[in-house]
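Question:
Write out your own:
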Amino acid sequence: MNIFHIREMNVQDQSFLWDMLHESLLSPLTSSELQLDERPSVAVLKDWGREGDYGLLAEDNDGEPMGAALVRLYSEEHKGQGFISESIPALTMAIRKEQMDRGVGTALLTALFDELKKRDIEKVSLCVDPNNEPAMLLYYRFGFKETSVAGDSVVMLAALL
């Protein structure tokens, strides 16, 4: 069994987040090139650390990042993936492939939902590839329901309170 802990993310974690975004997009672009990209999927990390940004990082006992879950509010003008409204934060989550099936996603979402409830956040949305069966099952377990289709992805919404 892999032991890990969850901590709040900070701006120093941004390079790991760019690597995870790069991996999740399976993009031919390098991580640094992604930072210049204007796609909604990249908007989740652009200027990370602004007011309302919040995320958690799972690390192993050696301090190596295993995965992350973060939320961000978007405006109508600058929508990110999973955008439903300006008052509903959009969730992005990524787990290193070699760390899957170890409870990291469940632990991250549990801790993130607990924090969002403390902040009186009532709902959270996300965008996911419907063919990503492990992610879909995890999100269903946490109460997410499909609301719409965005290209080849599904937008989901969960009530927290």
Observations:
- Residues 26-42 have pLDDT under 50 and may be disordered.
